[in-house]
């Protein structure tokens, strides 16, 4: 299969493999110690995995949760291995400006990460080993733009991460009449559908933080194989909310549900949406906003689902990590809170 990275503003996202591995919570940290639980006769013990400095701006676990990549405000990237010391196994300067988002590629393509910088630059880095030398990280791709367009790239050869082809470019607008020029876009949030099989079409949800209400609302796009193009499926937003700025989007894994679940964070809270799997008589998909979660003091920075699509984790500018779940009646509630402002 091909990988489709989509980058705009502060977000980069890669389509998952057909059978996606478990995802891990990736919480933003200003200064933190990252640990993992270890089983013992007395219960659960903790072991320090990584110690992040005060300049850490974003982090991301690899597919199996054994390696952690951290981006810093000074443009440096650090990679930590859970089996080694809390200090980084590799560290290099990827950008001259702050790194805002860091993502591991799917494991099918080796150990590689993508970094998004504050100046809109995207870079891809691949870990390579030569002879008996220690592994090093090699730059594969750099691109930069801030024109408000959605750009989808396709990897031509999974063994050559420096060869990407622009597959599509379009605006996040469902109504052609509403098309406009270049909006002033601060960031975009992207979430790919966790694909359940080869027969399922590639699709993703995207929302904007821009000065154009038509661009902002979260929309789902699907790739149409017959005409080799991306088509808008549905817009997630009530009429009074469609112009709200989107801060984060997360698509839940689907294990046997008759509908998809997507979480969308705006200034009004975290909206939980149910999207039908089958088209209605008019060809559209049914949507239902089943909950709006509030609790963060300030902007929601990131959303992440667990591997079963049952628990949603959110991080906010207030330094809090919150876990959300629905009870047997389908009512969503706050399950747990982690205060990252507290020193340990």
From TrEMBL:
Keywords: Nucleus, Protein transport, Repeat, Transport, WD repeat. GO terms for molecular function: structural molecule activity. GO terms for biological process: cellular response to amino acid starvation; positive regulation of TORC1 signaling; protein transport. InterPro entries: Sec13/Seh1_fam, WD40/YVTN_repeat-like_dom_sf, WD40_repeat_dom_sf, WD40_rpt. Residues 1-23 are annotated as: Disordered. It comes from Oryza barthii. PANTHER family: NUCLEAR PORE COMPLEX PROTEIN SEC13 / SEH1 FAMILY MEMBER, NUCLEOPORIN SEH1. WD repeats lie at residues 293-325. This is Anaphase-promoting complex subunit 4 WD40 domain-containing protein. Pfam families: WD40 (PF00400). It is found in: Nucleus envelope. Belongs to the WD repeat SEC13 family. One of its GO terms (cellular component) is nuclear pore outer ring.
